[in-house]
Amino acid sequence: MSDLTRPISELTASISEGRLKAVELVQQSLGAIKASGEFNAVLEVSPAALDRAKQVDAGKLTGRLAGIPFIAKDNFLTFETHTTASSNILKPFHAPYQSTAIDKLEAEGAILVAKANLDAFAHGSSTENSDFGPTRNPWDKDRVPGGSSGGSAAAVALGLASFALGTDTGGSIRLPASFCGVVGLKPTYGLVSRNGVIAMASSTDVIGPLTRTVEDAALVLDIMAGRDPLDATTIERGDNYSHLAGDLSGLKIGIIKEYMGEGIGEDVKANTLSIIDRLKSSGAHVEEVSLPSVELALACYYIIVPAEISSNLARYDGIKYGFSAPEAKTLAETYALTRDQGFGDEAKRRIMIGTYVLSSGYYDAYYKKAQQVRTLLIQEFEKAFQKYDLLVGPTSPTTAFKLGSKSHDPISMYLTDVMTVATNLVGNCAISIPSGKDSAGLPIGFQLIGPQKG
User: Of the residues 53, 139, 160, 274, which has the maximum number of CB atoms within 10 A of its CB?
Assistant: First the structure.
């Protein structure tokens, strides 16, 4: 068994006691990455990884993650590697600074070994929208790994690193975690700084870890969490690590009624009910709860998020950074040709939808109405958490689907996020944990949603 599948706490203890060299661990990671090329989970390897490992072994680099290799989704700005967001429009881009989350991890001795594939600009649920080719699911190469953090989830499932970083705008950590059989943690909005992470939708974007265990996820989050003067949306951190408990006695849990109705696969439903029975037998008080506005969350999300995408992607104009159309002869041609050639179909689709809902005559009918629904969602979740400690349900209505099966049907693809988007709209924390497999042997994820906490 690879050392990279062991818990982080075991690895750091082995390294600090001299039973394992950081260089050996990084070499294992780089070797596994090289051998995993057919899955296309990784876009680029960091040339500085082995040098940092040598610093750990020499005692020059210490911390809670000293010597632990990790992989970052390629929308995190990083030194030493390109940052492309898996889009041709950023293909030649080297970041002039590094994201706060990466800085915090490296300050604790973690070693960035590679950048992971994603749906370009995080626009997708399958990692098929990458301009550098799709990532394949580690459990079945003919299926998707989920998205948009599919490369990160696949990397952890394949044992390429001890953990990976992802971003979750509407489920983009939890969905691939479910499809790949790993843990995916979406923190409360603002708990981790978004400074130095390429924005998709600024009011729902969240940074979080993908790991093999809940304990590993809590440790990584504990290091990244907290206020950042470079991100005004950050909040005070709480204690994310030391209070992990196995005793569920007296815990009040609400099963979201709307997540257990039509559209959920039989195997997913049976697995979810089985986990709920285990929660009951562990002493938790479990009952059904209805959140009526949850059924409107997906429509609400696909109005608000494209509107923010339209605004955020306006900066990619062929002038400041990244790709610029070489044949353009005027400024107007530079803008038009750069964006036409540099953006993929999904980015263009979302830009057009977002521009439309923000345009004169449609703002009140669509964007304003969606924000009103968002307020109703927030109120319903707040009311639910006055009674319950946790809300639960499946992470996704199905397990991983075949590559290409939804590529030409955007609505069907968007429905993949039906059980995850509401949490982003209200800003709550959530986690997807592996809970079993379906009849085809594909992983199923169980989702737990908590109140907003630091």
Answer: 160
- Closest by CA to 16, choosing from 70, 49, 57, is 57
- The rounded distance, in Å, linking the Cα atoms of 33 and 40 is 9
Say whether 73 is catalytic: yes
User: Would you tell me how many other CB atoms lie within 10 Å of the CB of residue 204?
Assistant: 21
pLDDT in tens, 88-133: 999 889 999 999 999 999 999 999 999 999 999 999 999 999 999 9
pTM of the predicted structure, to 2 decimals: 0.96
CA distance 108 to 63: 4
Q: How confident is the model over 371-399, as a mean pLDDT?
A: 97
Q: Which of 14, 29, 36, 73 is an active site residue?
A: 73
| 3-class secondary-structure state, position 113 | strand
Q: Which residues pair with 183 in a beta bridge?
A: 211
Residue 35: other Cβ atoms inside 10 A:
11
Q: Note if 148 is an active site residue.
A: yes
**Per-residue confidence at 320, pLDDT binned at 50, 70, 90?**
confident
Catalytic residue among 87, 148, 152, 435: 148
Residues 207-266: tens digit of each pLDDT: 999 999 999 999 999 999 999 999 999 999 877 655 666 788 899 999 999 999 988 999
Catalytic residue among 86, 125, 172, 293: 172
Known active-site residue 437: no
Q: How far is CA 258 from CA 284, 345, 379, 393, 438, in A?
A: 21, 32, 17, 9, 21
Backbone phi, psi, residue 281, to 5°: -70, -20
Q: How far is CA 2 from the centre of its chain?
A: 24
Question: 3-class secondary structure for 232-279?
Answer: CCCCCCCCCCCCCCCCCCCCEEEEEHHHCCCCCCHHHHHHHHHHHHHH
Please name the residue that has the structure tokens 């038009």: 336
